[in-house]
Amino acid sequence: xxxxxxxxxxxxxxxxxxxxxxxxxxxxxxxxxxxxxxxxxxxxxxxxxxxxxxxxxxxxxxxxxxxxxxxxxxxxxxxxxxxxxxxxxxxxxxxxxxxxxxxxxxxxxxxxxxxxxxxxxxxxxxxxxxxxxxxxxxxxxxxxxxxxxxxxxxxxxxxxxxxxxxxxxxxxxxxxxxxxxxxxxxxxxxxxxxxxxxxxxxxxxxxxxxxxxxxxxxxxxxxxxxxxxxxxxxxxxxxxxxxxxxxxxxxxxxxxxxxxxxxxxxxxxxxxxxxxxxxxxxxxxxxxxxxxxxxxxxxxxxxxxxxxxxxxxxxxxxxxxxxxxxxxxxxxxxxxxxxxxxxxxxxxxxxxxxxxxxxxxxxxxxxxxxxxxxxxxxxxxxxxxxxxxxxxxxxxxxxxxxx
Length: 403
Description:
Layout: E1 4-9, H1 15-27, E2 31-36, H2 51-57, H3 62-68, H4 71-91, E3 97-102, H5 104-115, E4 123-127, H6 135-138, E5 144-147, H7 159-175, E6 186-191, H8 196-208, E7 212-217, H9 221-231, E8 237-240, H10 245-251, H11 264-268, E9 272-274, E10 281-284, E11 299-303, E12 306-310, H12 313-327, E13 334-339, H13 356-369, E14 376-379, H14 386-401
Parallel strand pairs: 1-2, 1-3, 3-4, 4-5, 6-7, 6-8, 8-9, 9-13, 13-14
Antiparallel strand pairs: 10-12, 11-12
């Protein structure tokens, strides 16, 4: 039986484009199943699921949306409906891959349908906004976005090439056999450039005991992805040793992972060992992007595109309170380790971010606010020292031995 590619798109304005893509998919021996998400006009050809069905899945009828003539409201309804329809088709076993094309509005709707699907399902989205900030569209999923170059507004000398190769990318994914590898218990770990040495040591220690450590770069999206995968039961434990995204959330940095960060492992009840890795820093882009209110702070150009700002005692007090508040919700084994000789590579004696008073403010806030049955263990080492790596992995092994 042929694999099924589900196409999500606005057949009222992009119908000719979708008819072309549908034909290319079918030429390759796959079945094309079309979902219409267009609101205002009639579809160029008859879809397998019409726009009214999508609208109703989002909580309203197509007639109502047309009568209201409120584009923002219609987009919200169709975005919700597209996600619900995608989940339903997948659950019924009728979706092997998903494809879409559109401008900013279409990209928002189609990407919501893609984000509703699990990792591993091929997802290709041709978009006019693919060369900009794609985080709102990709989120934490494996969506491939391809710039449309020209508007998605008909098949022409440029779009014929883009569409055809996008279809080739999708069908190539579907034809690729993914080899099976040895399955080991998975442990999530958070890492930043300034804690790389720590995580490499922890990874080596854990893997000797036949655990596989999957590392997430704490860049905002990395932390969000880790939290989502923990929620979806990919991991048996978390070595969450680089919680720097909390500092960006507090201070308006560019790598916040949002309010869900540092909550999921605790709520799931899996063992977690936590450290305030890189809470000495907030991330901004190039130095000329640092907000005016921070211009006189301690700044460190990590590279031409990333500028780090040292957190101060007041911010560290707040960060300690935030960490404690989130960890206090934990339902499973939890321990916090504090490195007394610095929270990062830059925060060590003699280095640019070494500021003992700021770190002490963080430690005191944790002592005052952390739930009393959650151990707070002070280690007389820098976070990247072998002594610290051994301490946190010893505790993790202790937790895992009791499962």
